[in-house]
Amino acid sequence: xxxxxxxxxxxxxxxxxxxxxxxxxxxxxxxxxxxxxxxxxxxxxxxxxxxxxxxxxxxxxxxxxxxxxxxxxxxxxxxxxxxxxxxxxxxxxxxxxxxxxxxxxxxxxxxxxxxxxxxxxxxxxxxxxxxxxxxxxxxxxxxxxxxxxxxxxxxxxxxxxxxxxxxxxxxxxxxxxxxxxxxxxxxxxxxxxxxxxxxxxxxxxxxxxxxxxxxxxxxxxxxxxxxxxxxxxxxxxxxxxxxxxxxxxxxxxxxxxxxxxxxxx
Length: 265
Ligand SMILES: Nc1ncnc2c1ncn2[C@@H]1O[C@H](COP(=O)(O)OP(=O)(O)O)[C@@H](O)[C@H]1O
Ligand SMILES: [Mg+2]
Description:
By secondary structure, the chain is of the alpha/beta class.
């Protein structure tokens, strides 16, 4: 069976010669909610950027929904990205626009671009956006400017925008790093609940392993640019945590503060 996402032997080398990913392989299916965990510098963001086609790869392949991302040119990537929702740590909302308009930008790929940009979204698009705002409990903020929202609300608006794309995959790169524990919990709850209900494969890079464990189906642990753990949260025992957070060459281990922080979570 062909998986929705198939990554094979992915390798990324940055222009300065740093090998950020070496031989990463994984498969994932529709509706799976997957946490990508690992120390700072492990390669989580690099991996997500590769799937989005934002990062050039040295070798290996990424097949998403039957299409090879790694060999696409820019115009092919633009089309492919319509089906890829992205949620950033810094929200990336347009501050001066109302929340509903921000969410509607998720429909841009479905409009003639100019029509979309001018704001003439048709009723069907608006219905989808309104429904998704309500799913993240933000309908009452629909007409407020995005910069008036709190951090947690901004991220929930970003989730509504991503899901309004009706994507096949959502990539969330540290979506709760700027939020306190309670808001983080609500954001991960909303993201995983909505994505699961819609059957959207979701990869979330996240530092808070305990938080991830209560909401995701699967954890992929990355250390030094390679997958060192892949399994359900129930299998993430101390040994696995050591592999993810303590393996690697000494130079990297030396500045590793996350395992200690995590132990306290
Ligand atoms: N543009 C770049 N040029 C050179 N090295 C980079 C660049 N971006 C990231 N790196 C390095 O690649 C490694 C992986 O980075 P990243 O994917 O951002 O890790 P993570 O998201 O897990 O913290 C790190 O060692 C980082 O310093
Ligand atoms: Mg990162």
